[in-house]
Each structure stands twice: as C-alpha cells, then as structure tokens.
Design brief:
With about 230 residues, the protein is mainly α. The chain contains 11 helices and 6 strands. The strands form 2 sheets. It has a 3-stranded parallel β-sheet, with helices on one face. α5 runs parallel beside α10, α6 packs across α9 and α10 packs across α11. The radius of gyration is 19 Å and the shape is globular.
Length: about 230
C-alpha cells in the first residue's frame, strides 16, 4: 500500500475513533515480500525512511486543508539504525522476540519521550517440557527470517542456540530468554523486567491451543500486574 493511501486510512480512522487507532509499520522480510507479495526487498532501512517521507508529505497536504495533530505511529524496530529512525521521526517502536536487555538498550538509544512496546511472549504453564514445547512452537516460525536471527546474535546468542530449522533444535537458553513461562508470579517478574528496563507496554500470551483466545490467562496476569 502506498504512503498516501495508508496516511489517508490512518487519518480517517483516527478521526472516526479518536485515540483508539495506532498504526504500526514494518519492513517485513524478504521471504514474505518477494515470495508472497512479488515485490523487491532491497535496502529495508532506506525503504522505511522513504515511506515515512511519503507519509509525512501526504499528511502535510491533508493538514493544510484540515489542521490536526498527526496521529501516532510505531515502527517494528530491532536494530540500532531502525531504532534511531523511529526516534528521529517521532514514532514509537515495537520490537518483537526480544529480551529485557534489548528493551534497556532500546530505551537508552530511543529516548524517554517515545512509546516503547516490546513483545514478551508468555506461557502460563509450570511443567518445563510442556511450557518449552509451546514456546518452541512460537519461536520456530521465525527461524528462517534473518532479521530475528541477526538480532538474537546481537543479544549474545549463537548458532548453537538456533541451528537448523526444526523447533527441537532451539536451545533452552534461547527459549527461556524469549518466552516467560511458569506460574503467575514467575511470569509477572519477567514482564516487570521489561517495564523496569523502560517498556511502556508488554505481553503476548500463548496457550496450549495455538488458535485459542487466552482470556482467562489475560485476566490472571492483569490482576497480578495491578
């Protein structure tokens, strides 16, 4: 979708539902962009910068006719350059499959005035084998996406932690670092580590049923985090 179209959609939704819509933008991955969409995946950082330029130009034209404050947007940022771009362009950022250490580094590079919304995967299961099986099912889908592999390397993990394409090859070290599992107290402690590191919002809950909606677990964690 071109920048003008997405800007028009963002502004329309923001007017219709004030403070209810948050636009997230990401460069995606070569396998998805080229293999599924049929587009070229080249220089993702430069492509994101050009896309934001196009959005800003479209928004300025719109506000010239109907003045309004620009609605918020967040970037899917993992590496230092994309984090810096999010800060420069007055956007929040939403890192995925990261650790509290990444959150702390992101907040340090990002500044204090932008939204930092990392994903912390959560499994409310105390049996280690069952919990890690659910966690591996989640992480294994991303093993062929270099953006995540490169970021895990920046966080200190090595090929020994994720060599091969099978989910059973994921090390316990990687699984336990990316997915908080256990009882409510243990999981809440892991989530709090992100909040203490500078996160504004965190948590993605997974269940034994991959397509289920974990309402009961959301409520349990919400009560514990109050």
């Amino acid at each position: 979708m071109d920048p003008c179209t997405i800007t028009a959609a963002q502004l329309t939704l923001s007017e219709a539902y004030p403070e209810r819509f948050l636009l997230g933008l990401g460069v995606s991955h070569r396998r998805l962009v080229e293999g599924i969409r049929g587009h070229h995946y080249q220089q993702p950082f430069a492509a994101m910068r050009r896309y934001l330029d196009g959005m800003d130009e479209a928004a300025r034209a719109y506000r010239a006719e109907k003045p309004a404050a620009p609605p918020p947007r967040v970037l899917a940022a993992l590496g230092p350059r994309m984090l810096a771009l999010a800060a420069q362009r007055r956007a929040g950022c939403s890192p995925y499959l990261v650790t509290p250490d990444h959150t702390a580094k992101a907040r340090s590079a990002f500044g204090s005035s932008r939204w930092l919304l990392p994903e912390q995967a959560v499994v409310l299961e105390t049996n280690p084998d069952q919990a890690r099986a659910i966690a591996r099912r989640h992480i294994s889908r991303y093993l062929d996406l270099p953006n995540y592999i490169n970021n895990w390397r920046r966080l200190g993990f090595t090929d020994d932690d994720f060599v091969g394409q099978g989910s059973d090859r994921l090390s316990d070290r990687l699984v336990d670092a990316l997915v908080a599992w256990g009882d409510v107290e243990r999981v809440s402690k892991c989530v709090k580590e992100h909040l203490d590191a500078g996160a504004d919002h965190v948590i993605q809950v997974f269940d034994v049923e991959p397509h289920g909606l974990p309402l009961r677990r959301w409520r349990m964690l919400a009560t514990a985090m109050l």
